[in-house]
Amino acid sequence: MDLTPRPGTTSSATPAAVEPPPDEPPGDGAHLDAVMRALVDVSPVAVVAVDGTGTVVFANPQAQALSGWGEDLLGLPVEVLVPDDRVERHRMLRDDYLEAPEFREFHHGAGLWWKRRDGGLVPVDISLTPVELAPGRSWTFAAATDVTERVRAQEQVLDLTRSYRMLAEVNQAILRSDGLGEVLQATCRVAVEEGGFLAAWLGRARPDGDTVVVDAIAGPARDLVGPVGTLVALGDRRLSGVTAAALRTGHSRAWAQVSGPAHEPLPTPVADLGVVDAVALPVREVDGELVVLTLYDGRADVFVPSLVRMLEQVAFNLALAVERFEDKARVERLAAHRRDLSARLLSAQEDERRRLAAELHDDPIQTLAATELRISMLRSRMTPGRESRPGDPAEPEKVLGMVDTVRDGIRAAITSLRDVLTGLEPPSLATSWEEAVCTTAGQVLETSMTRWSVVASPDGAALRRWDGARGAQALRIVQEALVNVRDHADAAQVEVRTHPVDGGVEVTVTDDGVGLPEEGVHPRRGHRGVQTMQDRAETMGGWCRLERVRTGGTRVRFFLPAVESG
Q: Furthest-apart CA pair in the chain: how many Å?
């Protein structure tokens, strides 16, 4: 209790005179008449009386209870009710007050505390009333009102106000920032600067479920969890327990909720930094890892439900920011992937043109050129008037042999051109999927010794799940896989199998040939078959892989998603 005058709080009220009863000697506590003593005893506030020496000469039951001294308070100096760091100043101000005692009021806002016997401090409002007992003798009555609840309510309002400012600043940071890391760091900084909290940090729980990586810090959080990038075990006492509880439950957790019914103090590593209360607020997952915001404060019971609800709004807005940056990163990755895919498709088109040019030049054109030469030779032999030369074979047999050679060359050229046209011809899905695959296999493997078989859903489920574009690309992938089998696998048997799976259709092309080389398949200039198959699948939102078969051979496996209904 601080019984010191403050400027501007005096009153014109004069000391009340209390005449002692005629049968009682002056200068004793009995000078209080029975009525006044009864009134003071039943007062709802703590009341003590101090004589001119600063000694407590009276204390009602409320004062005894509030101080924790009981009746032992009587006879003690009033400074036992004053915080230790203000005792000397209180003596000086008390002496000044006694020179001109008058009614005065002081409020807790001026820094008034009532010290308890156990050393605890209670916020109070004080009013001083001098009472004259006899000429030259007076007591000063001090009425102390415990304003703990009022101060707590004011602090809660202040905390909420600070949290509103924190929310506003976090929102501004979200709008201004270019990256998620910048937003996370700004949130911690604002929590300390605007929210008034002692420290703040943000971390992500790792998939192992036992550790959390620090993403942002502010205040003395570095002394608790280390710098950004530190990996901290959830069982580490520096985390105070609230972080682990929030990650385990997925809900906000304050220290009062995890400390147990005994309300134990925070662990030593945290308490040594002046932390008295803590709260952890889950944000949301980032790349499969849950983000959590942990705040520390140097006051007890700060994180009451109303403040936690306000802070959960901060966490919610932060979650929206996380989602926004995730979407932005996802769009950027998708755009980069699309650009890469487009470039690969353009490259594939150029490679396909070169391949066609090479095939036409190396086979049909060369065959036709040789055929033209033989026809010219045949024509020269059939020129009228030409005389036979000595040693020439019988002319009719010679001519027939040349005619047969020309015919064979023309047939070879026709076969080569048919193969080229087969590769260029758009896939036809006018019939069932199984029939379309059979037609393709028959065309590709017509001149090959490789046997083939097709296994597909008898109800045509693949075509019902795909649209025309997906079906055409699937047939192109099968066609390219069969061409690879014909040209490179040296296989006796190849099987094309189709079956519906969750979300789409999976197709496999399996041969029993020489298999994949140990170093894998790498695209070569003019030989982009594998890459083209993968590009076609990815263009349709699917995937394509090459696998080694344990019994020997190669399997091409690809998936194309079903068309979204509705």
A: 178
One-letter identity of residue 272: D
Which ranges of 361-467 would DSSP assign to H, the alpha helix?
366-381, 395-424, 433-444, 461-465
Whether residue 306 contacts residue 156, with contact meaning beta carbons closer than 8 Å, is answered with: yes
**Which DSSP state fits 73?**
G
Question: How many Cβ atoms sit within 10 Å of the Cβ of residue 445?
Answer: 18
The 10s digit of each residue's pLDDT in 56-104 is 998 999 999 999 999 899 999 999 999 998 899 888 888 888 888 889 8
Give residue 511's Cα distance to chain centre: 45
- Asked if 543 and 558 count as a contact pair (C-beta separation under 8 A), the reply is yes
Taking the C-alpha atoms of residue 412 and residue 268, their distance in angstroms, rounded to an integer, is 90
CB 216 within 8 A of CB 201: yes
pLDDT band at 233 (very low <50, low <70, confident <90, very high): confident
Integer Cα distance of 478 and 469 in angstroms? 14
- Could you say which DSSP state residue 55 is in? B
The answer to whether the beta carbons of residues 46 and 66 sit under 8 Å apart is yes
In angstroms, rounded to a whole number, what is the distance separating the alpha carbons of residues 283 and 292?
5
Residue whose structure tokens are 């009682």: 24
Quote the tokens at residue 7: 């400027």
Half-sphere exposure of 546 (CA within 13 A, CB side): 22
pLDDT (tens digit per residue) in 484-523:
998 889 999 999 999 888 888 999 999 999 988 766 555 4
pLDDT score at 424: 60
Instruction: Return the amino acid letter for 60.
Output: N
Task: Quickly tell me which residue has 């020129």 as its tokens.
Answer: 383
- Secondary structure element (H or E) that encloses residue 66, with its range: helix 61-67
Whole-prediction pTM: 0.48
pLDDT above 90 for 396:
no
Place of tokens 């344990």: 550
Tokens standing for 112? 């008034």
Based on DSSP, count helices (H) and strands (E) in the chain, helices before strands: 16, 18
Of residues 310 and 423, more confidence is placed in 310
The number of CA neighbours under 13 Å toward the Cβ of 82 is: 22
